[in-house]
């Protein structure tokens, strides 16, 4: 199959999506501003593989991040969510599609021009230990964007700004002289956030920023991120596999599976009425903190493994594991369908699949879920 | 970033407890180098090495004033005299004072070591950095060239270069520099290859840092440790190479004194006059040892995660 056209697998809840009236319906940022900070259109990132077809890490993703919002990007590992984030900074080169930041098409920008882009889009990495140079003091790491982009003109001004940024993320200014190994994991991630803030970016890509932290610290970092967003009107692309964290953090959520976006909506829409079978399965994996409910809860267990992104299934990517897959799912890429205001799901049987999954008694699964699994 | 906040406490060389947990105590703004030197000072072998090197530098600079006699004062009445009060290191077959010659020769050895290793370091690190960072054809071309250099036996290559450029101290230094360049290129490239894949390099790119900045600020400091060790080892070997070249008549020209030359000249007298070979040999030995001790200690101490050399040794053993 080819990479798919602009509408397949992707969701563009912007002006160009035909079945969505632009504007008010989408519960975006509180201010209601619909200005987009970054847009991906049919983004494809394929990595060449030795002696085989390329690995399609991202294969036709379209999304829009609006100013002031947090767009959550969820998916299991290998779904291409991190690659999508990296592509926004052009840290990986797109195979196809376009990347627009603040209205400018940066897809073909040269290395030199990209350096300017990287002031507008900052990134917070998963492992703060690894993302800070062990040889540099914390202050030097935070000051680096200031120096690179010429944002301060003197050493005292730089030190003041570093102190200010440290204060912003809740760290004492004296820590500027420390090395990363002298800090705790949470403190290190605060430094990573301070560094991302230094260039006053339009968009911050948070690539699993809490995944490598202790549980108790995770909440602190999430609260810090939310407070910073409120105070500084930041825009986040929040990449995570932790569904609860995404619900807590995001204004809108996009669910990725095998290089595609399968469903987009507000956390309320997605978590209460998932429209795509994959989202429903993902959500049913979250345990409920009430034993009475938990005992009788129907869980959707997916069979098999995620197919290889080097050789994705034809038609709907999810059909090989979908409990509700039908024969014609193999034929055509499902087009995102609007199931509610700003709520889109890329499934041909969008109205039926999820209710059917919930109603059906658990089907004994065949050992090898082929292209025509249970239900046909 | 060794500068401290104005009004802060003076840089304290006392290390913070390195537990990785919440840091305690104020004034963490100590510069890395300062801290490294302080840690170095607590390691006896490193101190010994440093003292020897400092002595060597003093002798190298002031050797001709320290020498009790002229290096070429021939005294046929006192040939091959064993060490005595008058000639602590004895005299050679022409009655020259061995002590004076050893002292004066220190300058040559130091000069050769520093200049040739300086050349090798500058060229080799540049080549390795470019090759490892950019990969691709730059890597292929540069490293194949290094492989070709590497394939020659050290001395043969040096002799060939000297043969082309003509004998003398300067050409000996250039020749030794060229010979040791591939080692630095390889050590550098190997380090760069691992460091460039680190997340912090990607983070630096994500900030918009230029390639040059990334190489200088992030890659180079993180591969400093193996380079420092290589430098200290190479200094030692360069001094030995100079000795070999001088012996072959391709380095320092007689009658100017050089340790290698003296060592090899003394070989004919080992049974009759051991002091001819012993003292220059001991000088080479001490110098090489001192460089190695200091290089070893520096490697441990320049890692900001380590506090003292002995601590580093304990954690690695």
Structural overview:
- Chain A has 12 helices and 12 strands.
- Chain A has helices at residues 81-88, 111-120, 128-131, 138-148, 155-168, 185-198, 215-232, 243-249, 267-272, 277-284, 291-296, 353-359; strands at 36-47, 55-66, 70-74, 96-101, 104-105, 121-124, 203-207, 236-240, 252-257, 260-265, 337-340, 343-345.
- Chain A has an 8-stranded mixed β-sheet with strand order 6-7-8-3-9-10-12-11, sandwiched between helices.
- Residues 1-33 and 363-376 of chain A have low confidence and may be disordered.
- Chain B has 317 residues and is mainly α.
- Chain B has one domain (94-316): MetI-like fold (Orthogonal Bundle).
- Chain B contains 12 helices and no strands.
- Chain B has helices spanning 32-41, 44-66, 98-134, 136-151, 154-165, 169-195, 199-207, 211-222, 224-247, 259-265, 275-301, 309-316.
- In chain B, α3 (98-134) packs parallel to α11 (275-301) and α6 (169-195) packs antiparallel against α9 (224-247).
- The longest helix of chain B is centred in the middle third of the chain and has 37 residues, at 98-134.
- Chain B starts with 31 loop residues before the first helix and ends with a helix.
- Chain A binds chain B through residues 89, 91, 114-119, 122-123, 125, 127, 130-137, 139-140, 143-145, 148-149, 155, 159, 173-179, 181-184, 187, 192, 195, 199, and chain B through 1, 3-5, 8, 16, 18, 20-23, 26-30, 32, 198-200, 202-210, 213, 217-218, 221-222, 304-305.
SSE blueprint and pairings:
The complex is a heterodimer of chains A (376) and B (317).
Chain A: E1 36-47, E2 55-66, E3 70-74, H1 81-88, E4 96-101, E5 104-105, H2 111-120, E6 121-124, H3 128-131, H4 138-148, H5 155-168, H6 185-198, E7 203-207, H7 215-232, E8 236-240, H8 243-249, E9 252-257, E10 260-265, H9 267-272, H10 277-284, H11 291-296, E11 337-340, E12 343-345, H12 353-359
Parallel strand pairs in A: 3-8, 3-9, 6-7, 7-8
Antiparallel strand pairs in A: 1-2, 1-4, 4-5, 9-10, 10-12, 11-12
Chain B: H1 32-41, H2 44-66, H3 98-134, H4 136-151, H5 154-165, H6 169-195, H7 199-207, H8 211-222, H9 224-247, H10 259-265, H11 275-301, H12 309-316
Helix pairs in contact in B: 2-3, 2-11, 3-4, 3-6, 3-9, 3-11, 4-6, 5-6, 6-8, 6-9, 7-8, 9-10, 9-11, 10-11
């Amino acid at each position: 199959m080819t990479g798919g056209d602009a509408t397949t697998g992707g969701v563009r809840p912007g002006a160009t999506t035909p079945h969505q009236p632009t504007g008010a319906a989408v519960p975006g940022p509180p201010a209601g501003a619909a200005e987009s900070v970054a847009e991906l259109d049919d983004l494809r990132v394929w990595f060449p593989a030795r002696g085989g077809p390329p690995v399609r890490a991202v294969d036709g993703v379209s999304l829009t991040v609006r100013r002031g919002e947090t767009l959550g990007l969820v998916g299991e590992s290998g779904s291409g969510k991190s690659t999508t984030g990296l592509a926004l900074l052009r840290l990986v080169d797109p195979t196809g599609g376009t990347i627009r930041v603040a209205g400018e098409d940066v897809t073909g920008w040269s290395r030199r021009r990209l350096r300017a882009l990287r002031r507008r889009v900052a990134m917070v990495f998963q492992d703060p230990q690894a993302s800070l140079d062990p040889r540099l003091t914390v202050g030097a790491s935070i000051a680096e964007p200031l120096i690179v982009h010429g944002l301060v003109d003197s050493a005292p001004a730089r030190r003041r700004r570093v102190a200010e940024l440290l204060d912003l993320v809740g760290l004492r200014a004296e820590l500027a002289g420390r090395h990363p190994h002298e800090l705790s994991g949470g403190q290190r991630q605060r430094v990573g956030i301070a560094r991302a803030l230094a260039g006053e970016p339009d968009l911050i890509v948070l690539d699993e920023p809490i995944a490598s932290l202790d549980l108790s610290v995770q909440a602190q970092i999430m609260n810090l991120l939310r407070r910073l967003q409120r105070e500084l009107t930041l825009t986040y692309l929040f990449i995570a596999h932790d569904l609860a964290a995404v619900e807590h953090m995001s204004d809108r959520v996009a669910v990725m599976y095998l290089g595609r976006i399968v469903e987009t909506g507000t956390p309320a829409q997605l978590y209460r009425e998932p429209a795509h079978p994959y989202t429903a399965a993902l959500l049913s994996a979250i345990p409920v903190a009430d034993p009475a409910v938990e005992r009788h809860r129907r869980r959707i267990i997916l069979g098999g493994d995620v197919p290889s992104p080097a050789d994705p299934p034809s038609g709907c990517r999810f059909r090989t594991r979908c409990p509700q897959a039908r024969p014609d799912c193999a034929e055509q890429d499902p087009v995102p369908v609007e199931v509610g205001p700003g709520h889109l799901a890329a499934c041909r049987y969008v109205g039926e699949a999820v209710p059917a999954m919930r109603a059906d008694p658990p089907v004994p699964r065949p050992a090898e879920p082929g292209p025509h699994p249970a239900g046909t | 970033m060794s500068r401290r906040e104005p009004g802060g406490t003076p840089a304290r060389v006392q290390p913070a407890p390195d537990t990785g947990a919440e840091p305690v105590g104020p004034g963490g703004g100590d510069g890395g180098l300062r801290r490294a030197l302080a840690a170095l000072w607590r390691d006896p072998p490193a101190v010994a090495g440093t003292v020897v090197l400092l002595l060597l530098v003093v002798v190298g600079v002031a050797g001709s004033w320290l020498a009790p006699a002229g290096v070429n004062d021939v005294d046929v009445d006192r040939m091959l005299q064993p060490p005595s009060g008058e000639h602590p290191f004895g005299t050679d077959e022409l009655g020259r004072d061995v002590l004076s010659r050893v002292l004066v020769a220190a300058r040559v050895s130091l000069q050769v070591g520093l200049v040739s290793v300086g050349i090798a370091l500058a060229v080799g690190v540049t080549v390795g950095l470019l090759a490892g960072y950019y990969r691709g054809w730059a890597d292929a071309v540069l490293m194949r060239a290094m492989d070709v250099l590497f394939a020659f036996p050290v001395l043969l290559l040096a002799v060939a270069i000297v043969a082309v450029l003509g004998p003398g101290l300067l050409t000996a230094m250039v020749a030794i520099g060229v010979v040791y360049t591939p080692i630095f290129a390889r050590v550098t490239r190997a380090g760069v290859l691992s460091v460039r894949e680190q997340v912090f390099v990607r983070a630096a790119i994500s900030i918009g840092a230029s390639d040059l900045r990334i190489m200088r600020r992030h890659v180079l400091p993180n591969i400093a440790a193996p380079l420092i060790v290589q430098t200290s080892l190479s200094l030692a070997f360069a001094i030995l190479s100079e000795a070999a070249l001088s012996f072959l008549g391709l380095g320092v020209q007689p009658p100017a004194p050089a340790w290698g030359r003296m060592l090899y000249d003394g070989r004919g007298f080992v049974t009759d006059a051991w002091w001819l070979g012993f003292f220059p040999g001991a000088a080479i030995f001490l110098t090489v040892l001192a460089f190695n001790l200091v290089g070893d200690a520096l490697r441990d101490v320049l890692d900001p995660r380590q506090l003292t050399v002995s601590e580093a040794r304990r954690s690695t053993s």
